[in-house]
Amino acid sequence: VSQVNDLSGNNNNATQATAASMPLWISNGQNGLGVTRFNGTNNYVSVADSSSLNLTDFTVSAWINATTLGPGNWRYVLNKGNYVVGKDDIALTIRNMKVAGLTANASYTENTGSGTAVSTSQWHLVTLTYDGSNLKGYLDGVNQWTTPDTRNPTTSGQPLTIGTGTASGSYYFFSGYIDDILIYNTALSTN
C-alpha cells in the first residue's frame, strides 16, 4: 500500500516514507474491508503534520491484531512526535503486553501499561483519551488505567506515524494488523 486515505475530510492521508517501509494491504480486516499489516521490523506509514492533528483534548483508537508482543518492549500503534521531552504530543502503544500511552510538553506523563494483557492473534480495540485532567487507557472499551495529567500536549510540528515510534533514539515497530484508526479532538467517554 502506498497511501492510506483519511475518511474524515481533513485530508490527513498516510503515505510511505520509503518503498522499504511499505506495509502490506490485506483485503479482509476487522470491519470486513481492507487492513494494513506491519512486519515489526521496518513497516510504517506517516501523516504530515496538520493543525487538525495538533490536539489538546483527544481520543485516539485503533483496532489491532498483534502477531508478536514481547514483555518490556514498546510496540507503537501510533505516535505524534518523537519521544523527546517537548517534542512528543501523543503516543498510543503496547508495552509489557498492555495498553500504554503518553502525552508531553515541557515534561511528560506516561503510563507504561497496566490492566489486562493484550493477547496475540486476536482483534482488540485499544484507546487513549486525554481530557485536560486525566490520561486514560482502554482495552476493548474497558478502562485499564487512569493517570492524572494537567499538562496539555505541545504542538511539535512532528508527523503522525502509524506502526512505529521512537524512544530514546530507538525505533519500535508494531508487528501485526492495524485497522480503523480514529482520532477525535475531544475525550470520548465509554457511554
Q: What is the helical fraction, as a range of percent? A: under 10%
Q: In percent terms, what proportion of residues is strand?
A: over 45%
Q: Which regions contain 5 or more consecutive residues with pLDDT less than 50?
A: none
Could you tell me the radius of gyration in angstroms? 15 Å
Q: How many DSSP E strands?
A: 17
The largest β sheet comes out as: 7 strands, antiparallel
Helix run count: 0
Strands in their spatial order, largest beta sheet = 3-4-17-6-11-12-13
Overall 3D geometry?
Answer: globular
Mean pLDDT: 81
**How far is the first residue's CA from the last residue's CA?**
35 Å
Q: State the order of secondary-structure elements, H for helix, E for strand.
A: EEEEEEEEEEEEEEEEE
Q: Briefly note the structural class of the backbone.
A: mainly beta
Task: Give a quick set of tags describing it.
191 residues; mainly beta; seven-stranded antiparallel beta sheet; six-stranded antiparallel beta sheet; 0% helix
